[in-house]
Amino acid sequence: MTTNAQPRTQWLGRWGFILAATGSAVGLGNIWKFPYITGEFGGGAFVLVYLACILAVGVPVMMTEIALGRRGRGSPVDALRRVIAESGRGSAWSLLGWMAMLCGFLILSFYVVVAGWSFAYLWKMLTGGLAGSSVDEMAAIFAANNASPLNLGFWSTLVTVATMVIVGKGVQAGIEKSVSWMMPGMVLMLLLLIGYGVFSGGFPAAVDFLFSFDAGRLSSEGMLAALGHAFFTLSLASGAILTYGSYLPATTSIARTTLSVALADTVVALMAGLAIFPVIFANGMSPSSGPGLIFMSLPLAFQAIPMGTLFGVLFFVMLSMAALTSSISMVEATVSWLTDNKGISRRSASWGTGLVLWLISTLAMLSFNVGADWTLAGKHFFDWLDYLTSRWMMPLGGLGMVMLAGFVLKSETFREELGLSPACHALWLFMVRYVSPLGILMIFVDALGITRVEFGLHWPWLLAILVAATLVGELASPRLRRMLCS
Fold first, then answer.
1. Predicted confidence (pLDDT) at residue 7 exceeds the cutoff of 80
2. Closest CA to 55 of 211, 230, 254
3. Which of 347, 357, 375 is nearest to 156 (CA)?
4. How far apart, in whole angstroms, are the C-alpha atoms of residue 64 and residue 254?
């Protein structure tokens, strides 16, 4: 039963949500970061730890956000306000909705600049603008791309306009219709690139890099990388999944849908590794992380292979689509709130949001050229947007969501929305109350550099803390609930 009597557009089918949510999760970071850290921290051993982190932190939080969105049938602000009112709790908790919506908008404000790189490189690949004979020359091309505010501003503006055009058309005609061909298209291009990689000569080395089970390389740093990536990769605490959940039909299973998105996200990330690293290894290059792999080493490798321009174009088309599906999801919360509360059309809300987004993203874009000297506490405007969202707003928002679900809202809310068996519901509640908060706190502490968590030395203590927190939490649950609800 929903607390919102207003009719609301819904996905045409379960796959519409899965494709949209997976598109939100599979962004630029997933294409290069997950494959790299997989190989760096133990291959198959890292994948197993990552999957455990997905199940312990990512899936429970994602289920919570989808359930809150579907229950409240609105933007993060409206959905949380309705669900909180239904439970008779303090309205201060609705601030989580404002923070989630703002977080997604701020992320997109610098993300469109990064997404612009992929569109710029697609054009360079088509027009022969990536002619370099060394990594240093490719680095010079990358620097020149960012040095011109007109050039960089054009491509980030293009991403902004494309995003607003799609979002302005609506949930079904815009978002769902777009991801229904972009996501399968991206997978098809990955398969074509993997097919080439099989015959490139570097495929065995790529498989060994990604899947060799080497527990000795799985350090505390690797475990924290798995934990952090499991949380951030699913677009949690940024308003995207909660808003997408508000369009989910009441008959759709939240648990099965969430597991499908998590699995699809992981499979696409591993496929990206199998597409990228054979080309890198076949050309004797090092699989370095970050923009250097995608925008320097990989274009150089494409020049050295037969039909390299074709495969380079395929790769950057895929990268551009991954960027676009993520940007669509991050702005939807703001557009949804404007259409629900300000009485304006979706098209007007999209272009109004796009204008504000363009102004902020222009300041982020200038951090790479004319504003390179504009710093505060040693950080550019671009860096501040990244720091505030990834280090503070997302972890705090995720922590607030699980505390809200685990201790504040009425238990009937999630029993009805999730529709789990008693045993599965008890497991979800345990994860949301104790395991997910502990994981998010470790991400938070590590990201801020407060202390270094060493799993090899302290995992018995972490387990003991979890057990103690569970016992104390269950014993103090009524008192804690009263305190949090006051």
1. no
2. 230
3. 357
4. 9
Residue 53 in this model has a pLDDT that exceeds 70: yes
Give percent helix, percent strand, percent coil of the chain, each to the nearest 5.
80, 0, 20
- Write down how long the chain is: 486
d(CA 451, CA 197): 41
pLDDT (0 to 100) of residue 232: 87
270 neighbors 38 (Cβ within 8 angstroms):
yes
Query: Is the pLDDT score of 418 beyond 90?
Result: yes
In single-letter form, the type of residue at position 350 comes to: S
- Per-residue HEC secondary structure of 211-269 comes to HCECHHHCCHHHHHHHHHHHHHCCCCCCCHHHHHHCCCCCCCCHHHHHHHHHHHHHHHH
Question: Per residue in 330-356, pLDDT tens?
Answer: 999 999 999 999 889 999 999 999 999
pLDDT at 483: 53
pLDDT band at 35 (very low <50, low <70, confident <90, very high): confident
Whether the Cβ atoms of residue 365 and residue 113 lie closer than 8 Å to each other: yes
Q: How confident is the model at residue 377 (pLDDT cuts 50, 70, 90)?
A: confident
- Residue type present at position 92: A
Both tokens assigned to 227 = 């934990």
For 42, which DSSP code? T
Among residues 440, 32, 470, the alpha carbon closest in space to that of 231 is found at 440
Q: Are 212 and 38 in contact (CB under 8 A)?
A: no
- Residues in Cβ contact with 176 at an 8 Å cutoff, skipping those fewer than 6 apart: 11, 12, 16, 19, 20
Specify whether the CB–CB gap between 4 and 70 falls below 8 A. no
Residue type, 481: R
- Of the CA atoms within 13 Å of residue 319, those in its CB half-sphere come to 31
- Give the separation between CA 380 and CA 95, rounded to whole angstroms: 28
Residues 6+ positions from 4 with CB-CB distance below 8 Å? 72, 73, 74, 78, 82
Cα–Cα distances in angstroms (integers) from residue 21 to residues 233, 236, 244, 409, in the given order:
11, 11, 7, 25
Q: Report the alpha-carbon angle 448-101-360, nearest 5.
A: 80
Q: Give the list of residues 6+ apart from residue 365 with CB closer than 8 angstroms, or none.
A: 113, 116, 149, 152, 153, 156, 382
Report CA-CA distances (Å) from 371 to 117, 124, 159, 374, 380.
18, 25, 21, 5, 8
Cα–Cα distance between 240 and 100 in angstroms, integer? 8
Among 200, 183, 181, 182, residue whose Cα is nearest residue 276: 200
DSSP characters over 7-31: -----SSHHHHHHHHHHHHS-HHHH
Phi, psi (deg, nearest 5) at residue 43 = 60, -120
